[in-house]
Amino acid sequence: MIDPTDFAAPFGDLPVPESLLALLRFQNDIGDGNYSAALTLTDDDHDGLRYGWSEDPPSCPG
Length: 62
Known about the structure:
Elements: H1 4-8, H2 18-30, H3 47-51
């Protein structure tokens, strides 16, 4: 079980998206690794989420 405060810490002053918090609550309820073979939230090394996020809208090819 991951404490939401621990999960949010790497985001610093940025808010954690509600969809990630909802997924974390779901994962805490059923157990990590029980809902996806490819996705599990952790409470370490979230720098990629914080620093890799772009404020630019996605571009559509074409």
